[in-house]
Amino acid sequence: MTVDVGVCIPDMERIGSFATLAHQIGFKGIAVTGLMNQPFSYLTDGITVYRRENLTGKGISSLRNQIERVRRNTPIVAVQVGSIDATNWAVENRRVDLLTLDPAKDHKLRETTACLASTSSIALEIQIAPLLNTSGLHRSRILKAYREALVTAVDAEMGIVLSSGATHPMGLRSPLAMMHIGMLLGIDRTLAERAVYELPTYIIERSLKRSSPEFVSPGVEIIRRGENP
Amino acid sequence: MKKSRRRYLLFHLHREGQPVSGKHLGMALWKSLLSLYGEVHAADSKLYLLDFDEDTGVGVLQCSGSALQQIITAAVVINAVEQTSVSFEPKRTSGTIKGLNHRVPRRE
Description:
The structure holds two protein chains of two kinds.
Chain A: E1 3-7, H1 15-25, E2 29-33, E3 40-42, E4 48-55, H2 60-70, E5 76-80, H3 84-92, E6 98-100, H4 111-119, E7 123-127, H5 129-132, H6 136-155, E8 160-163, H7 175-184, H8 189-210, E9 215-217, E10 220-221
Chain B: E1 6-16, H1 22-37, H2 39-44, E2 48-52, E3 58-64, H3 68-76, E4 80-81, E5 84-94
Helix pairs in contact in B: 1-3
């Protein structure tokens, strides 16, 4: 199962065209931001659409309120790299799945943040859309920001996830194409393969497992319910 | 100078809008390669669009083995060809055209 965890569909009417292309290029699922109420739904194309929420608050209290509201029924919760306090609080929180880097902003991924994220099993998400929509010097600056962040993440043994960040269907790229963009960003083939084929699926499965009533804590789950004798 | 081996890439160009001609796709590939990797890499790539079906979007390109990775990456970052939004999907690579299981029509 291959999932593109970062698709930004403007409205639900266009989801059909995204799903059709995603199916053609080899995806089994896409995660869309802010359009769904249920954790996931199946489409006729054989594509599963997962709910994703990007937490956007500047302060810790804002992030905390949002996490509490969305975590239960959202397989993917992402936080953007921002102010040090808020970002470090978010990456220490095991309820967050992805740390996203916006190359248009000045915020960088710090080594301390990457180490905290690594211990909390939070992955760094790189969206390829900014690379497709720019060229020349502007693209070069984005490449620099992404490559530096990836070096920091790899050194801290943080997981890496590649997603499209597509706002229109032609912004989607096949898993193999995304793997090559990963290699352009300086990660080796094995890591790029894991960032596209394995880690997104693992994160979704982990979240769905956590939200099941049988889950108690990592490593502990209810196998059978019964009455006391 | 050691002679580099040729590689062949079977691809599918998905599009939204008007069909894209092989000539325009070739130009877009060269421009992207030049922009992303520079003149030296572009010169050494020996990039050549062997076949491209405008209707289905399926095509084959030939390049030197050492430049294959760069060419796929350069092709993948193309988002439009002549105002047509596109998504380049690399399908299969091979050392021979026959290995791609794709029939390239003979040029007259």
